[in-house]
Amino acid sequence: MKVEAVLFGVVAAFFGGSAALYGVWSHWDPAGTAALVVAFGMAGLVSFFCAVQYARHGRRPQDRGDAEVADAAGPLEFFPPHSPWPIVTAFGFAVMATGVVYGLWLFLIGFGVLGRGVLGLVFQYVDRGAGPQD
């Protein structure tokens, strides 16, 4: 992740410098300057995330020149076999987007369904790995 952190750090620096130069030369045009500042922020966020992951986990097998394919083998993560919450979340977003056109009441219903779907996704396996309760 160190290479990715440096790469996105360079991209963030480019967008930060571009935003400053564009802002000065365009007499602080709000649309273009804001777009470049947002691009700077997004690249900086990805760079920060990659740097933190590198600090926590160290070098990956993909980062080493002498690594074998078997070095990266093993369990990756837990992937749920089935879940109804992505469908609930998508339905809530669709109702919420339709509510933008048809009225606040439909938007609020969609927001509630979307919120329930997101909470379901987040807390579906919150007790996974916990042993039997006595």
Task: Describe the protein's topology.
Layout: H1 2-25, H2 30-57, H3 85-102, H4 104-123
Give the gist of this structure:
With 134 residues, the protein is mostly helical.
Can you characterise this structure?
This protein is mainly alpha-helical. The protein contains four helices and no strands. The protein has helices at residues 2-25, 30-57, 85-102, 104-123. Helix 1 (2-25) runs antiparallel to helix 2 (30-57) and helix 3 (85-102) runs antiparallel to helix 4 (104-123). The longest helix has 28 residues, at 30-57. The two termini are 42 Å apart. The mean pLDDT is 90.
Structural class: mainly alpha
| Rg of Cα set | 22 Å
In round numbers, the mean pLDDT is 90
Low-confidence stretches: none
Order of helices and strands: HHHH
DSSP strand (E) fraction?
under 5%
Q: Determine the number of helices (DSSP H or I, runs of at least 4 residues).
A: 4
Q: How would you sum up the major sheet?
A: none
Overall outline: flat
Can you give the helix content as a percent range?
Answer: 55-70%
Protein traits:
134 residues; mainly alpha; 4 helices; 67% helix; 0% strand; flat
